[in-house]
Specification:
The protein has 354 residues and is of the alpha+beta class. The protein has 2 domains: 276 residues, CorA soluble domain-like (Beta Polymerase, domain 2), CATH 3.30.460; 56 residues, Methane Monooxygenase Hydroxylase, Chain G, domain 1, CATH 1.20.58.340. 51% of the residues lie in helices and 15% in strands. It has a 7-stranded mixed β-sheet with strand order 2-1-3-7-6-5-4. A hairpin with a 4-residue loop joins strand 4 and strand 5.
């Protein structure tokens, strides 16, 4: 449940704009890296303090400042003060339960999105909030912990592959968002494999474990939907070019990311429909199995009703019962009971009840 709702009790009663970290408690060191580049040169460094990054603010080159570890809010406040970020923006960065959104402040654009991963040990989808600040010539990315899906982008910058070194900071934001959206497809592939496996078990031999697997899939798909659905509005806003910081040339690429986002949403909705139908199939399978059991028990009971009636009559032991002293009475009764049994079996087969 904590993946869906972050506890905000620590921020209760505080004035607006107060930076309070809301998320999983962490103890690892904060890592700050800077990549400064243009089409001719690149400079990549790691810094121990955020103050070391301040000199890159007014450079004509494109600067990407990445901060891993937002639990130390004093770093966020220092960066926000130097780069002119609104206190409410700093508060939103520290609150990892934010809904994906985009806000245009004129001098910069603030973007929040969810980066998804997959825990192979726990077999569950994980989520990390990524906050992006797009300025004139700089991009600041805030992450909860070390490790992301941005390594291919770093490699493209180092090797000057594609057009990323020739484009501005807005194109870098596009590349980061595109990498996050592409990561959604790999998560959906893993869930798709689990759905197929669950369907095979559901058809062959449904069990309570199958029901647990279906509930797991529904829960994970709901979690992904909560992370992806609002992103459509975010990218749509960026694509429309409402901000002066996003050029028309980059807006075309945001339209491509928008298409990818729609594909992800459609896939999630399809998987949710499949999970719901599997739940209905499970209930139908259990009901059919119960019906088969009841059918067999009913046939057995129906066969024994007349046999029990005959045996009950001759078990009363009245004195004046002619058949009690008849020499062939016992075999005759057995033959009658056998005849009744065979007749009923043939009748049931004719009615296709067996």
């Amino acid at each position: 449940m904590l993946r869906f709702i972050k506890k905000r009790s620590k921020a209760a009663g505080l004035p607006p704009g107060t930076a309070v970290y809301i998320g999983k408690q962490r103890t690892e060191e904060v890592r700050i890296t800077v990549i400064d580049y243009d089409k001719d040169q690149i400079q990549e460094k790691g810094f121990k303090t955020v103050e070391d990054c301040f000199r890159f603010k007014d450079k004509s080159t494109v600067t990407w400042i990445n901060i891993d570890g937002i639990y130390k809010t004093e770093i966020l406040e220092k960066a926000g003060k130097h780069f002119g970020l609104h206190p409410l923006v700093i508060e939103d960065i520290a609150n990892t339960g934010q809904r994906p959104k985009v806000e245009d402040f004129g001098e910069y654009v603030f973007v929040v999105l969810k980066m998804l991963g997959y825990d192979e040990e726990k077999l569950e989808v994980t989520s990390e909030q990524v906050s992006l600040i797009l300025g004139t010539n700089f991009v600041i990315s805030f992450q909860e912990k070390i490790g992301d899906v941005f390594d291919p982008i770093r490699q493209r910058i180092r090797e000057a592959k594609g057009r990323i070194r020739r484009m501005g900071a807005d194109y870098l934001v596009y590349a980061l968002i595109d990498a996050v959206v592409d990561g959604y497809f790999s998560i959906l592939e893993k869930l798709g494999d689990r759905i197929e496996g669950t369907e095979e078990v559901l058809i062959a031999d449904p069990s309570p474990e199958t029901l647990q697997a279906i509930n797991y899939l529904k829960r994970e798909l709901l979690f992904i939907r909560k992370s992806v659905w609002p992103l459509r509005e975010v990218i749509s806003s960026l694509h429309r070019g409402e901000s002066s910081l996003i050029s028309d040339a980059t807006g075309v690429y945001f339209r491509d990311v928008y298409d990818h986002t729609i594909q992800v949403i459609d896939t999630v909705e399809t998987f949710r429909d499949m999970a719901s139908s599997m739940f209905d199939t499970y209930l139908s399978s259990i009901s059919n199995r119960m019906n088969e059991v009841m059918k067999v028990l009913t046939i057995i009971a129906t066969i024994f009703i007349p046999l029990t009636f005959v045996a009950g009559i001759y078990g009363m032991n009245f004195t004046f019962m002619p058949e009690l002293k008849w020499h062939w009475g016992y075999p005759a009764v057995l033959l009658v009971m056998m005849g009744v049994f065979v007749t009923m079996i043939l009748y049931f087969k004719r009615k296709k009840w067996l």
